[in-house]
Fold these 2 entries.
Entry 1:
Amino acid sequence: MAYIAVDNLKQGMVLDADVHDVNTRLLLSKGQKIAPNHIRILKIWGISGVSIVGSANEKDEDVPPIDDKNLERIKKAINLVFKNADLKNPLIREVYKNSLIHRLKGAFGNSPTLNCHACTENPIPSKPEKLKNRIDQSDIKLPDAPTIIKELNQVIDDPLATSNDVAQVVTKSPSLTAILLKIVNSAYYGFPSKIDRISRAVTIIGTKEISGLALGICVMQAFKDIPKDILNMDAFLRHSLSCGMVSRILAAQNNLAQTEQLFVAGLLHDIGKLVVCKYYPEHAKVCLESGFVSNASIFEAEKKIFGLAHPQIAKLLLTKWNLPSELTSDIVCHHAPSKAHDPQKAGIVHLADMISHGLGIGSSGERSIPHFDYHILDNMTNSIDRIKTVFSQIIHQFSPMDAIFSDISK
């Protein structure tokens, strides 16, 4: 018996175990020979890998030949990302190894970075304690939740809502409709025929899943006007998108339902940083520059300057918009999943953030991952053998979604 990624399945391989979706519905039976349509079915339902009879004959990912100078440069960057980590931990060591391999392969080339310069002379515009009091008292001019978000929340909360109810809300925004149709018709989902109606997409993917995708897109669009001299939204969105996609992959691996909820949690995990950039741009510059100059954590810089870090700042926005409590918990606790309503889900976002930083896709502003919740990671050690599969999938799936989501920041 061998576990093999769906991307590496070949026609004629024989299943060594039944394959079920997240709702325990039988998709394929033990002993069945793999046919081309089977691979498509597995991808549609988010199955990341299966057990097959015999050996998978998959070669280990060897580090490709590379000159010493480039190797040293990439190792230096990787070591900075994981400088706060205990590389003796099996899961972190596996993430580190695969991050190094795929950076050496140039999986994502030279990703753009956030705009931050060594301008250490910039003073903090206001005293930290005053700013902290303003935020604590919610004296922050957060934008009113778009009407479409309010309506989607109502649909999500209504157990009798139908696919047409969701579609009617979504289609009020032509731009949102266009983006969602691009997503469901992308290689990410792999549907064999073109889906040209939101109602059909909702029927196939699910009411809450489409609502979640729409919610994530609406929230990110609310911050697209942040000035480029404060934040490179292309770089930020790429990191956020990667975290969302890896979260979805990990959710499917762990047989969790509502994988799109984890996608949205990953997509919005650093939304607190956007709040700071939009409403306190001078403070944001100081935070980014502090991390850039000293290699210190921006997370720690935020706490010194604001009195609290971006997850707590995010909570103000998410509470203001009355987003689902579980989604809010996954986002707010992504640096400390043990404190979340559901530690496993927040732990998935925690791990996805680590993997995205390791691969160097875009940038969240952090040069080093600030925290590692080892208790949660230790509980996810059954995923160690599948980490390689996660890297393989995000590398194959990212480009189509990146092209679609790049429209959001324009």
Entry 2:
Amino acid sequence: MIITTTPNIEGKQVTHYLGVVTGETIFGLNVVRDFFASIRDFIGGRANSYEEVLNKARTEALNEMKQRATALGANAIIGVDISYQSLGGNSTMLMVCCSGTAVKTA
């Protein structure tokens, strides 16, 4: 399945618009990861443990959206938008949401 942020797919014609599809996921961040990330903030550098969580959350949200599009009979999702939000009292959770339009292409 093609998943793109663009409103169309070069070389393909949209034949049916099947509706908006979404994917959401929420990941908790743990104390150990937070501790090492705060050290990284102080001394500089990349927080690899947070990047891993972010990548996993994004992948799961996109996969969920793809499953919903497949259930509608789509072979592509266009106009995809991905957003990120921290949740919880101390921003201890990460929410990733994505949405797009499920379509059939020829």
